[in-house]
Amino acid sequence: MKVASVVGARPQFVKVAVVSRALREAGLLEVLVHTGQHYDPGLSEVFFQELDIPPPDYHLGIGGGTHGENTGRMIEAIERVLLEERPDWVLVYGDTDSTLAGAIAAVKLHIPVAHVEAGLRSFNWRMPEEINRVLTDHASDLLFAPSETAVKNLVREGIDVERIKLVGDVMYDAALYYGAKAERESRILERLGLRPKEYLLATVHRAENTDDPERLGAILEALALLHREIPVVFPVHPRTRKRARAFGLERFFKELLALDPVGYLDMLMLEKNARLIATDSGGVQKEAFFFRVPCAILREETEWPELVELGWCTLVPPQDKEAVRYGLTAIQGALGREGTPYGEGRAGTAVAFYLLHQGVP
After folding, report:
1. CA 157 vs CA 149, 223, 271: distances in Å
2. Could you read off the pLDDT of 295-334 as tens digits, one per residue?
3. In this structure, what are the phi and psi dihedrals at residue 279, rounded to the nearest 5 degrees?
């Protein structure tokens, strides 16, 4: 059986590393298609190297445009690959433009689609990611849900329960496997002169924050104020740096421990040892929980409600600098309850099992 995996962004590289390994162990043939959505070396090449992901069979080189431009060009290019390879399944991940493009290209050719991380909902239709994930779910033949909440969301939308498989979260698999590797290989704490539990870690990349000068300014100014009390480590996403420069906010980077994007192993090490994490990233929210580090979610909502319910994550909408500063100060050291909403770390194996035994519809 041949599976075509379509990826294009940093979080998808982490997920495909887990699933690709499981597919190979199950004896399945994988064709890896990299759309090029994340083309910065710090967000792409380093992940393939660190996670031992095989080089992409196809690198489409599509990125840097608007959502519509990228998605349209990706559909066209992915379709050519699928016509050449004729896979039995197309596997897509998460909620990016690459996810939706892969699903659309496949269904138009009547190739079955499987969606890893299906059923997530923020219920915020202003988020491009929400549109991508909903449309992909309804186009997919197999929906691999990471949690019971995700299953309920899919059932509520009328999706046939036979198509839904509760497998757990492949990012938990990755955190377990690569977290141990990070302990052995990463030296980022030493390089930055950091002590465990004596710094904050922050990431910002979502359009709702980066494209709004007031929200981005509130986040950066609050982090700069906190940095006077405790080091704030801030790996800066290329889009965030570009927007900050355009809005005249780049000066705040000088008041933080601002870094270029870091590799996955270094990021895991920074997460595991932080006193607090502040982020608008869905993946970083979960990694904070996996390592039992309190996390402030810099948004009004999250597609991972279990994190808030268990008390490990707190929503801190960036309305102004004082709201952000107070929110981050208040939850330092706040521990949540134990729970395993995302499985036991065997999601990749479950994905391979269902693909192998589902067969071609």
Report:
1. 13, 39, 35
2. 999 999 999 999 999 999 999 999 999 999 999 999 998 8
3. -160, 160
Backbone dihedral region for residue 140 (phi beyond 0: left; psi -120 to 50: alpha; all else: beta)? beta
First to last CA, the chain: 13
Residue 7, phi-psi category: left (phi > 0), alpha (psi -120 to 50), beta (remainder): beta
If phi over 0 gives left and psi between -120 and 50 gives alpha, with beta otherwise, what is residue 117? left
CB 305 within 8 A of CB 149: yes
In tens, the pLDDT along 178-222 reads 999 999 999 999 999 999 999 999 999 999 999 999 999 999 999
- Among candidate residues 38, 115, 205, 237, the one labeled active-site is 205
59 is catalytic: no
Which tokens in the block code for residue 327? 């929110």
| pTM, full prediction | 0.91
